[in-house]
Amino acid sequence: MFDTLKMKLWQKNQFIPDIKNAKMRDQFRGLPVLDNSKCNTNDVNNICPTRALSVNPLKIDLGKCTLCGACEHKCGEGAIKFSNYYKLATDSLDKLIIEEGITPEKYHTRAIDVKKEIYSIFNRSIKFRQVSAGGCNGCEMELNAASNANFDMGRFGIDFVASPRHADGIVVTGPISKNMAYALEDCYNCTPEPKVVILCGACAISGGIYQDSEEINREFLKKYKVDLYIPGCPVHPLTFINAVLDFVRKK
């Protein structure tokens, strides 16, 4: 007992107390801030491996971006600067397109509109079945970390469950390989109504670096509505938790 008390006194609280205002280290690559006047290249195909970058005007598609930082160094000094702002989720693909003038403050205010029906049903608790649809395990590991002692998303009523029949929605990671296409749809059909679909990571949103592969099958996304897009490669636990909180709760 005394050892437990001493450990508690020494470690303090392990969890992040204010998850919505947590600080990210400066080295973290989050929302890019663009300055079109400083861009000095048109050779975007040799800069961005996922074709997330376009010029004239300068734009970045966060749904394709792996946050590798190559464009920051090759588009001209000051043309692209990755901030450490991590609340990147949106409720539509259009909002993932970053243009000049979009700052973290402007991005956050437009990113997610809380729908009354979502808030009324899921504001206190929401459970997910996570489906790894051909992912590399990067996003999967980060989502697992969201439940650890540091982030502890369970205190907000957010949890992953073992069966889709116990879930309120599914979280998809990976580009959706042919081998996982049926399993993903089966999981979706087994989830009771009403249900939400979340795409987590660049691979899930756009196919990422695998978008041209013949071994992926993304027909699922043409058949069913996606409610939330969470960019990243991999997605940070703070990005995921804040995305879900913004989605199900009033701001």
Describe this structure in words.
This protein has nine helices and ten strands. It is α/β, with parallel strands linked by helices and 251 residues long. The strands form three sheets. The protein has a five-stranded parallel sheet. The relative contact order is 0.17. The model has no long low-confidence stretch (mean pLDDT 92).
Layout: helices, strands, pairs:
Layout: H1 2-11, E1 32-34, E2 53-54, E3 59-61, H2 70-74, E4 80-82, E5 97-99, H3 104-111, H4 116-122, E6 126-132, H5 138-145, E7 158-160, E8 169-173, H6 178-190, E9 196-200, H7 202-206, H8 220-223, E10 228-230, H9 237-248
Parallel strand pairs: 6-7, 6-8, 8-9, 9-10
Antiparallel strand pairs: 1-4, 2-3, 3-5
Task: Kindly list the characteristics that best describe this protein.
15% strand, 10 strands, 251 residues, alpha/beta
Fraction of residues in H or I helices: 25-40%
Mean pLDDT across the residues is: 92
Secondary-structure-based class equals alpha/beta
Number of helices: 9
**What's the total count of β strands?**
10
- Regions with little confidence, pLDDT below 50 for 5+ residues: none
Largest sheet: 5 strands, parallel
Please write the string of helix (H) and strand (E) elements: HEEEHEEHHEHEEHEHHEH
- The global form is globular
How do the strands of the widest beta sheet line up side by side?
7-6-8-9-10
Q: How large, in whole angstroms, is the Cα Rg?
A: 19 Å
Intertermini distance: 41 Å
Q: Tell me the strand percentage band.
A: 5-15%
Q: TL;DR?
A:
By secondary structure, the protein is α/β, with parallel strands linked by helices. The chain has helices at residues 2-11, 70-74, 104-111, 116-122, 138-145, 178-190, 202-206, 220-223, 237-248; strands at residues 32-34, 53-54, 59-61, 80-82, 97-99, 126-132, 158-160, 169-173, 196-200, 228-230.
